[in-house]
From TrEMBL:
PROSITE patterns: HIS_KIN. Its EC number is 2.7.13.3. It comes from Nonomuraea glycinis. SUPFAM superfamilies: ATPase domain of HSP90 chaperone/DNA topoisomerase II/histidine kinase. Gene3D superfamilies: 1.20.5.1930, Histidine kinase-like ATPase, C-terminal domain. Signal peptide: none annotated. This is histidine kinase. GO terms for molecular function: ATP binding; phosphorelay sensor kinase activity; protein dimerization activity. One of its GO terms (cellular component) is membrane. The lineage of its organism: Bacteria, Bacillati, Actinomycetota, Actinomycetes, Streptosporangiales. It comes from the Bacteria. Keywords: ATP-binding, Kinase, Membrane, Nucleotide-binding, Phosphoprotein, Transferase, Transmembrane, Transmembrane helix, Two-component regulatory system. SMART domains: HATPase_c. The keyword Disulfide bond does not apply. PANTHER family: NITRATE/NITRITE SENSOR PROTEIN NARX-RELATED, NITRATE_NITRITE SENSOR PROTEIN NARQ.
Length: 389
């Protein structure tokens, strides 16, 4: 559609240039319609009109074949000069085509078109009726040709610059879209890990407590009531954490965003596991110091997943021990139990341990998961800490 419009516009321009050139060519009388001595020649006739038309017609294809059109127009101009007619206003066609060559073709073609125009004009000026023209007129024509060529080159360079800007903007937009997709995928993975950690831990605790309440419901209603209260409290905690996560996912500014859990919350987590029936102890070695927020959360989730794993698989009467050791350049976290072990109760790594592995790897840590030599199961992670952390 755009090509059709440009062809139509060029055709209209060619018709206008040809009509004005023919009218002035037919209406001149001994050169009185032209500057003294400039392009004046023999009286107009059919041959002269035909050459003027052939000189102007290539303007219609100035964008599609500018160099070929310029050559064709220069041939007609040469014949007009050689036969003594004079070029007259039809020379505008040469100017238009030279501008088109400079603005729509490469530097080599543009220089070739300029050189060809100057040579043809020089030959015509030396051999034709232009010998009577003043030198100032020749200089003015040469200046016009060079200025028109320079204007065409400037337009081409500006067009190339704008095209480069558009390409760069498109590349930046594609890169931004790719970064956005990667960030969304990473955020979805992070939220999936958070939801799994919250749901798996609290649901496991609630399941164990519900089973204990069912067993003692008839014989010890007071203990069953305490277990049901613990289930209610655990459920409320799970709902609060899930509400916070979903609130972030929905970008709800009204959501109550509590701080992410960390090592400071381990005593409460251990107490919760005791209430669920898993004998758990917590040991902290070394001088506690502030660790990065991401490592803090990863360590807490590792302990949470390890204790949940022990609660589900270690068996009745098992004991679990959580150890946090603050080293000079690393943080070590261990969760060990003396339960049934991998032989009696196979523990297939689920999404929780996979998520823990991703968390530890994200911060350059080393994770060890597997059965203990003397029975039981262990989860151990070492997080490197930089100086000043």
């Amino acid at each position: 559609m755009r090509a059709d419009r440009t062809t139509f516009h060029d055709s209209v321009l060619a018709v206008l240039v040809a009509a004005v050139s023919v009218v002035l060519f037919l209406g001149r009388d001994g050169g009185r319609l032209e500057p003294p001595g400039l392009f004046a020649g023999r009286a107009p006739d059919a041959v002269g009109v035909t050459l003027v038309l052939l000189m102007c017609v290539p303007v219609a294809v100035r964008r599609r074949w500018p160099l070929a059109g310029l050559c064709a127009s220069l041939v007609s101009a040469t014949l007009l000069s050689a036969l003594g007619y004079g070029v007259g206003l039809a020379g505008v066609a040469v100017v238009v085509l030279l501008y088109a060559v400079a603005s729509y073709r490469g530097l080599a073609a543009a220089l070739g078109g300029l050189l060809l125009s100057l040579v043809v004009y020089g030959v015509g000026a030396a051999a034709g009726p232009l010998t009577t023209t003043r030198w100032s007129d020749h200089v003015a024509v040469l200046v016009v040709l060079v200025a028109v060529w320079g204007g065409g080159r400037s337009l081409r360079l500006r067009r190339a610059y704008l095209e480069e800007l558009r390409d760069r903007a498109a590349r930046l937009e594609r890169a931004r879209a790719a970064d956005t997709r990667a960030a969304r995928a990473e955020e979805r993975t992070r939220i999936a890990r958070e939801l799994h950690d919250v749901v798996a831990h609290h649901v496991s605790v609630m399941t164990v407590q519900a089973a204990a309440a069912r067993k003692v419901l008839a014989t010890d209603p007071e203990s069953a009531s305490e277990a049901l209260s613990a289930i209610e409290s655990t459920g409320r905690t799970a709902m609060a954490e899930m509400r916070d996560i979903v609130g972030v996912l929905r970008a709800d500014a009204r959501a109550e965003l509590t701080p992410q859990p960390g090592l400071r919350d381990l005593p409460a987590l251990v107490e919760q596991m005791r209430e669920a029936g898993l004998s758990t102890t917590l040991s902290v070695e070394g001088a506690a110091r502030r660790v990065p927020a991401g490592v803090d959360l990863a360590a807490y989730r590792l302990v949470q997943e390890g204790l949940t794993n022990s609660l589900r698989h270690a068996g009745a009467g098992a004991r679990s021990e959580v150890t946090v050791r603050h080293g000079r350049d690393e943080l070590e976290v261990r969760v060990e139990d003396d339960g049934l072990g991998a032989a009696a109760s196979p523990r297939r790594p689920g999404h929780g341990l996979v998520g823990i592995r991703e968390r530890v790897a994200l911060y350059g840590g080393i994770l060890t998961i597997g059965p203990k030599a003397g029975g039981g199961f262990k989860v151990r992670a070492r997080f490197p800490l930089k100086d000043g952390q």
